[in-house]
């Protein structure tokens, strides 16, 4: 039988990949995945977790939980990197330019990641869930980076 198969739209496809990437996260609080895409091609992926060679929070516990730090505050008090940071790092490590790319992320980027994404030249961001950082969306708007929430 030749039945037409339902294919996901591009935004759904890349967001589903971001969801899959998030499953590699070693964070105990939130699993986040991100995918940088240009011309419908994946340039880099990233998930949140500690730098290479350092024991995972899954194994040694969460510093932020131990210190009682609320979500969206004191980002510097964390052993891990955010998924968006890892996308930028992976692209740089492998010599892949991401200027002009679209970012698909399971969460709205925090303020620190938003500033990094602006300077990396990300032109648009699609995300699934919000984040407890009210300044990030404002910063992205000021920089002219459109944000679109996908369900």
Please outline the helices and strands:
Layout: H1 10-22, E1 33-38, E2 41-47, H2 57-60, H3 63-67, H4 83-93, E3 102-107, H5 111-120, E4 124-129, H6 134-142, E5 147-149
Parallel strand pairs: 3-4, 4-5
Antiparallel strand pairs: 1-2, 1-3
Helix pairs in contact: 5-6
Features:
34% helix, 5 strands, alpha/beta, 151 residues, 5-stranded mixed beta sheet, 19% strand
Structure description:
By secondary structure, this protein is α/β, with parallel strands linked by helices. It is built from six helices and five strands. The chain has helices spanning 10-22, 57-60, 63-67, 83-93, 111-120, 134-142, and strands at 33-38, 41-47, 102-107, 124-129, 147-149. The protein has a five-stranded mixed beta sheet with strand order 2-1-3-4-5, sandwiched between helices. Strand 1 (33-38) and strand 2 form a beta hairpin. The longest helix is centred in the N-terminal third of the chain and has 13 residues, at 10-22. It starts with 9 loop residues before the first helix and ends with a strand. The relative contact order is 0.17. The mean pLDDT is 93.
């Amino acid at each position: 039988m030749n039945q037409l198969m339902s294919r996901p739209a591009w935004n759904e496809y890349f967001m589903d990949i971001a969801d899959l990437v998030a499953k590699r996260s070693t964070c105990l609080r939130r699993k986040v995945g991100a995918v940088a895409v240009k011309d419908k091609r994946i340039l880099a992926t990233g998930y949140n977790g500690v730098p290479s060679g350092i024991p995972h929070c899954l194994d040694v516990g969460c510093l932020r939980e131990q210190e009682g730090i609320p979500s969206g505050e004191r980002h510097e008090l964390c052993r891990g990197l955010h998924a968006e940071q890892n996308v930028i790092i992976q692209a740089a490590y492998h010599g892949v330019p991401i200027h002009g790319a679209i970012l698909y992320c399971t969460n709205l980027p925090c303020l620190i990641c938003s500033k990094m994404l602006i300077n990396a030249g990300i032109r648009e961001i699609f995300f699934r869930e919000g984040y407890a950082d009210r300044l990030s969306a404002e910063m992205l708007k000021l920089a002219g980076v459109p944000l679109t929430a996908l369900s």
